[in-house]
Design a protein that fits this description.
Distance between the termini: 30 Å
Order of helices and strands: EEHHHHEHEHEHEHEHEH
Number of strands: 8
Helix content: 40-55%
Shape: elongated
Structural class: alpha/beta
Strand order of the largest sheet: 5-4-1-6-7-8
Radius of gyration: 17 Å
Strand content: 5-15%
């Protein structure tokens, strides 16, 4: 694979529960899917374990032979039910801006279906330079390496695994299903409370890097 030439700084970000709180919108979408299919789905439970690919969650509620069909239906419902109810997490836009102000480039690498991920970024005016969807855990390393990411920011142990596989610094935020201690135990290099701490951390990181 031919990799692109990266600028001096490239920072990757996860989407769900890192940049955005998608729980209200995803809850509404699972509720709509349950109503459409007549199948019980515990939406309250489903939104506590965001991160892995959609088909894994769908597989908890539908037989294996219907998972792909139901995932497709969920994705088709998503724009109507999940976008407007989703919020930017505190510091999300400022984190992206901090990368740009440092002369770098930002990319969002997410397990979410890419067209739906783009709807979130557009609706919330989160202006990342690159978006890559449909990648989870170690698969994220493909996009991180292709775009030369130095840092990957996420909220899930799967994000730590992706950063490790890409030889990128793993920066985590305790805004998702994993607490700070769990993220450290998973191997994160840096644990922040949330993205409001990211600009200061980035400034310090770049200063330390410049000093060698």
């Amino acid at each position: 694979m031919a990799y692109s030439t990266a600028p001096a700084l490239t920072v990757g970000f996860d989407l769900d529960m890192t940049l955005i709180d998608s729980r209200p919108g995803i809850h509404a979408c699972y509720t709509a899917l349950a109503e459409r299919t007549g199948t019980f789905i515990d939406a309250d439970l489903a939104v506590t374990r965001l991160g892995p690919p959609l088909v894994e969650e769908i597989g908890n509620w539908f037989p294996a032979e219907r998972v792909e069909e139901m995932a497709g239906l969920y994705r088709s419902l998503y724009p109507s039910y999940a976008v407007t109810g989703t919020l930017a997490l505190p510091g999300a836009r400022e984190a992206i801006d901090a990368v740009r102000e440092a002369g770098g480039r930002s990319l969002v690498v997410t397990a979410k279906y890419e067209p739906n991920a783009k709807l979130h970024l557009d609706h919330l005016d989160i202006r990342a330079d690159v978006l890559v969807g449909d990648l989870w855990a170690e698969q994220k390393a493909v996009a991180l390496r292709e775009h030369g990411a130095d840092v990957y920011v996420g909220d899930h142990e799967g994000d730590v695994r992706g950063a490790r596989a890409a030889d990128a610094l793993s920066v985590t935020v305790a805004t998702g299903p994993f607490g700070a201690d769990e993220l450290r135990a998973a191997g994160a290099d840096v644990v922040l409370a949330d993205l409001t701490e990211f600009p200061r951390w980035l400034a310090g990181h770049l200063e330390r890097t410049a000093r060698g």
